[in-house]
Amino acid sequence: KMIKKLLPLAILIAIWLFSSGQAITKSGVSRNTLEFPHSPQDFITRPVSQLTQGQKIVGRFTAKENNLGQLAVRFTSNYKEPSDRIVFRFKPENHHQWYYQAEYNTDQFQNNQLFPFGFPLIEQSKGQSYIFEIESLSGSTESGQIGISKENPPFTSRYTFSPRSVIAISTFLIKKAFNVLSNSDFLATSFIFIIPILFYLAL
Which pTM does this prediction carry? Predict the structure, then answer.
């Protein structure tokens, strides 16, 4: 009788854990990475939804942790298939030269999804301010235009860790737990799938 009672509960918990894990995987953030959201107020220029050729979007943010290695920006394709190319540039705020820059085709951007721009890891990044630019090279009404999505967060910063000591691993796991619990997709999915568990326990 006990097994018959616990089996449905175990199945519900397994579905909840699997679905929550899928929500984390969908975000594109690896297990050894922390991700922190930034607000629309962190843009220096107005985050327009349609970039034209030569137009730039500029943002500034302060790194939350060390080992900064990615900036993920949420684009809108305006429900079209834009064929623009953009330049992503990134540097510490007090530097004159760009630390990293590269060109990207916009046809790989998913509407209202975060797109990660990776660059060489910055080990001592915590508390430092950084500037980034996104410039359209050929955006027009004919080729299609991308822009910054109105969904939040408009961009996030990501930090990659390889902790070696027991203390470092413990500290990272605590930070990762809080980081996951602040993920809106994780919370929404967990809430949906935990309701059946609560109903079953209430029976």
Answer: 0.72
